[in-house]
C-alpha cells in the first residue's frame, strides 16, 4: 500500500498532504451534515430490535434482546441509588470491539477502548432525556430488561458515531411479543433474595399473549435519537468532522466528540462533550453547532422511518 | 415420542421450511467486504450471516511458533449475544463452545492451506457470526476469506451438515432440526478428500456410510455454488482493473 509506505517514511509530509486533500474534499462537501452514514434497520431476525450502521469504513451491528425481570419494592430503591441510571431504567448497554473489526484488537477481555465506549454511550443515553423507562413495565411487579449489544464489524475511526447510530435505530424498531401478567402473581417482599432476579418468563407467571400479538415499546421517544459527532481539531484552526482512522491518529490533533440528543417532540440539545487533547473554546462551540445540524440531518436521513 | 418428532421434521416429504430432504438453503457470498483486512468474505447461509476476515501471513509471535517452523493458523470465532433468539443469554464469557468451534476450524484448515509456503508466519482468521449457528457455515466463510486473501490452498474447502431422519438423509440442517437432536454429521471436504467430520448427536454405525456419501456430494455442490460467486467477484475485479 503506497500510502502506508509514505506514512512510514515521512509521516509529517504525509499528514500535511492528507489534511490538504481532506480539506479540499470537505470544501466541496460543505458541511458535516453530509457525512451521516447509512443505517439498515431490523435486519437481524434473531433479535427483538436490530440495526446495522455504516459510516465510511466503520460498521456496527446492534442487536437488542429482552428478558423479563421481577422487582421487589425494597430492592428497587437500593438498586436505583447504587447503579448507573441506565441500568435502573432497565437498559443494559454493551459495546464490543472483537478482533474481526481491526488488527489492533486481540481476543480476550474487553479492551480499554471497548469499555470506554460502553461508558460513553451509557452516559449519553442516560442523560439524554429521550429514554422512556415507563414503556418497559409489565404489570405491577415485572419489568422488561433490554440488553443492547453493539458489535463492531469494521473499525475505521468515529466509533461512537457509528455505534450510537446503530443503537438509536435498533431501539427505535423494537418489536416484542405482547405479555400477559396473571392477576394473582404476587410475592411477599420479605423474601431475602437478590433484589432484581432475572428469571425465565415462564417461572414468574408472565406469559406471552396467546394471540401472538406484538407491540412496539417506544423506549426512545418517537422521532428522537441520541447521536455522536466526532471532530478532529488540528492546530486550533482546522476542523475535520467524522474522521476516519488515519485522521484520528494525526499528530497534534485533538479529538472532540459531541453527544446530542433530541428530535420529534424534544428539542435537539448537546448532552455532553468529550475531548482528548486541547482545543480552543471557539472551536468547541463551533463543533457543538455543527453537531446539532448533523443531528437534524441524521434524523431526516438514515434514521427516518 | 420419536414418531411424532419425525413427523414434525419431515411431513409429506417436506421439511419445516418447505425444503425437500436434498435441498440446501440459499447460499450467497460477497468477497472483499472489508478493505483493511487482507481478505474478507460475507456469507449468507439461509438466515445466517457470517463475516470472516483474514489477516496475514504476517510475522508469527515467538510463543506461537512450533518447532517445525511451520505456518501457524489461528482462528478466532465470536458469536454476539443477540445472534440466536432461542438460546438463553450467556452471562460472563461462556466461550467454551466458541473455542471448540475455532479449534475445529483450525484443524480443518490445516489440511488444506499449503503451510510450507508460509514458514514462520501466522495467518489469523476471525469469524463473527450473527443469526444462526453452524460449524459448516463458518468453515465455508473462512475458506472464502482465505481465497480473497490469496492464501495458497489445495482446493476449495466446503462444508455441510447432514442429518438422518426416517431413513433419509437431510442436507443442510437448520437450527430447528439441529436442536431437535437428529443424528447429524458435519463434513468438510476438498474434492474427494474428507478433511473434517464431526458427529452432532448419536449416530448409528450403519447410518454413517450413506450419510458420508450424501455429505460428499453436497460439499461438491456447495463448492460449485460458492465458486460461482468467487468467479463473479474475480471477474468484476478484473474488469475494474482493466478499465482503470
UniProtKB/TrEMBL annotation, chain A:
It comes from the Eukaryota. Residues 41-177 form the Exoribonuclease phosphorolytic domain. Pfam families: RNase_PH (PF01138). InterPro entries: ExoRNase_PH_dom1, Exosome_comp_Rrp42_subfam, PNPase/RNase_PH_dom_sf, Ribosomal_Su5_D2-typ_SF. One of its GO terms (molecular function) is mRNA 3'-UTR AU-rich region binding. Its main location: cytoplasm. GO terms for biological process: exonucleolytic trimming to generate mature 3'-end of 5.8S rRNA from tricistronic rRNA transcript (SSU-rRNA, 5.8S rRNA, LSU-rRNA); nuclear mRNA surveillance; nuclear polyadenylation-dependent rRNA catabolic process; rRNA catabolic process; TRAMP-dependent tRNA surveillance pathway; U1 snRNA 3'-end processing; U4 snRNA 3'-end processing; U5 snRNA 3'-end processing. It is found in: Cytoplasm; Nucleus, Nucleolus. Keywords: Cytoplasm, Exosome, Nucleus, RNA-binding, rRNA processing. GO terms for cellular component: cytoplasmic exosome (RNase complex); nuclear exosome (RNase complex); nucleolus. Belongs to the RNase PH family. PANTHER family: EXOSOME COMPLEX COMPONENT RRP43, EXOSOME COMPLEX EXONUCLEASE RIBOSOMAL RNA PROCESSING PROTEIN. This is Ribosomal RNA-processing protein 43. It comes from Macrostomum lignano. The lineage of its organism: Eukaryota, Metazoa, Spiralia, Lophotrochozoa, Platyhelminthes.
TrEMBL record, chain B:
GO terms for biological process: nuclear mRNA surveillance; poly(A)-dependent snoRNA 3'-end processing; rRNA catabolic process; U4 snRNA 3'-end processing. Pfam families: RNase_PH, RNase_PH_C. One of its GO terms (cellular component) is nuclear exosome (RNase complex). Residues 24-151, 158-217 form the Exoribonuclease phosphorolytic domain. GO terms for molecular function: RNA binding. Belongs to the RNase PH family. PANTHER family: EXOSOME COMPLEX COMPONENT, EXOSOME COMPLEX COMPONENT RRP41. This is RNase_PH domain-containing protein. It comes from Macrostomum lignano.
Amino acid at each position: 500500500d503506497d500510502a502506508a509506505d509514505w506514512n512510514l517514511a515521512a509521516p509529517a509530509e504525509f499528514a500535511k498532504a492528507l489534511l490538504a486533500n481532506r480539506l479540499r474534499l470537505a470544501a466541496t462537501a460543505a458541511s458535516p451534515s453530509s457525512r451521516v452514514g447509512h443505517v439498515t434497520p431490523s435486519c437481524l431476525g434473531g433479535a427483538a430490535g436490530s440495526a446495522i450502521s455504516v459510516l465510511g469504513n466503520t460498521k456496527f451491528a446492534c442487536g437488542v434482546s429482552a428478558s423479563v425481570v421481577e422487582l421487589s419494592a425494597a430492592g428497587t430503591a437500593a438498586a436505583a441509588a447504587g447503579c448507573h441510571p441506565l441500568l435502573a431504567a432497565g437498559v443494559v448497554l454493551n459495546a464490543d470491539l472483537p478482533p474481526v473489526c481491526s488488527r489492533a484488537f486481540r481476543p480476550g477481555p474487553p479492551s480499554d477502548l471497548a469499555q470506554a465506549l460502553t461508558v460513553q454511550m451509557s452516559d449519553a443515553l442516560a442523560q439524554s432525556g429521550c429514554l422512556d423507562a415507563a414503556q418497559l413495565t409489565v404489570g405491577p411487579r415485572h419489568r422488561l430488561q433490554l440488553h443492547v449489544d453493539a458489535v463492531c464489524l469494521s473499525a475505521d475511526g468515529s466509533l461512537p458515531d457509528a455505534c450510537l447510530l446503530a443503537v438509536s435505530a435498533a431501539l427505535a424498531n423494537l418489536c416484542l411479543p405482547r405479555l400477559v401478567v396473571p392477576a394473582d402473581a404476587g410475592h411477599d417482599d420479605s423474601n431475602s433474595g437478590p433484589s432484581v432476579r432475572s428469571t425465565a418468563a415462564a417461572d414468574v407467571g408472565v406469559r406471552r399473549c396467546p394471540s401472538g400479538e406484538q407491540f412496539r415499546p417506544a423506549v426512545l421517544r418517537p422521532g428522537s435519537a441520541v447521536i455522536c459527532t466526532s471532530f478532529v481539531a488540528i492546530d486550533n484552526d482546522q476542523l475535520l468532522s467524522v474522521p476516519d482512522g488515519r485522521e484520528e491518529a494525526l499528530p497534534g490533533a485533538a479529538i472532540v466528540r459531541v453527544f446530542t440528543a433530541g428530535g420529534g417532540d424534544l428539542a435537539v440539545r448537546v448532552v455532553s462533550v468529550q475531548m482528548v487533547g486541547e482545543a480552543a473554546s471557539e472551536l468547541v462551540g463551533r463543533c457543538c453547532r455543527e453537531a446539532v445540524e448533523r443531528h437534524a440531518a441524521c434524523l431526516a436521513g438514515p434514521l427516518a422511518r | 415420542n420419536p414418531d411424532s418428532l419425525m413427523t414434525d421434521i419431515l411431513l409429506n416429504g417436506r421439511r419445516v421450511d418447505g425444503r425437500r430432504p436434498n435441498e440446501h438453503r440459499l447460499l450467497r457470498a460477497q468477497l472483499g467486504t472489508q478493505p483493511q483486512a487482507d481478505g474478507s468474505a460475507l456469507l449468507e447461509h439461509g438466515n445466517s450471516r457470517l463475516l470472516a476476515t483474514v489477516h496475514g501471513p504476517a510475522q508469527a509471535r515467538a510463543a506461537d511458533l512450533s518447532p517445525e517452523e511451520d505456518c501457524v493458523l489461528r482462528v478466532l470465532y465470536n458469536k454476539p449475544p443477540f445472534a440466536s433468539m432461542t438460546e438463553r443469554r450467556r452471562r460472563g464469557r461462556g466461550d467454551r463452545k466458541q473455542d471448540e468451534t475455532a479449534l475445529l476450524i483450525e484443524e480443518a484448515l490445516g489440511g488444506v492451506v499449503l503451510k510450507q509456503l508460509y514458514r514462520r508466519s501466522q495467518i489469523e482468521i476471525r469469524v463473527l457470526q450473527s443469526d444462526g449457528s453452524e460449524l459448516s457455515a463458518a468453515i465455508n466463510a473462512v475458506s472464502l476469506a482465505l481465497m480473497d486473501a490469496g492464501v495458497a490452498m489445495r482446493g476449495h474447502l466446503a462444508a455441510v451438515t447432514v442429518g438422518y431422519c426416517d431413513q433419509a438423509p437431510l442436507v443442510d440442517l437448520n437450527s430447528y432440526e439441529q436442536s431437535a437432536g437428529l443424528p447429524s454429521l458435519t463434513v468438510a471436504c476438498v474434492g474427494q478428500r474428507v478433511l473434517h467430520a464431526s458427529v452432532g448427536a448419536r449416530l448409528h454405525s450403519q447410518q454413517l456410510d450413506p450419510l458420508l456419501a450424501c455429505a460428499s456430494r453436497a460439499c461438491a455442490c456447495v463448492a460449485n455454488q460458492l465458486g460461482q460467486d468467487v468467479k463473479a467477484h474475480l471477474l468484476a475485479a478484473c474488469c475494474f482493473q482493466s478499465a482503470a
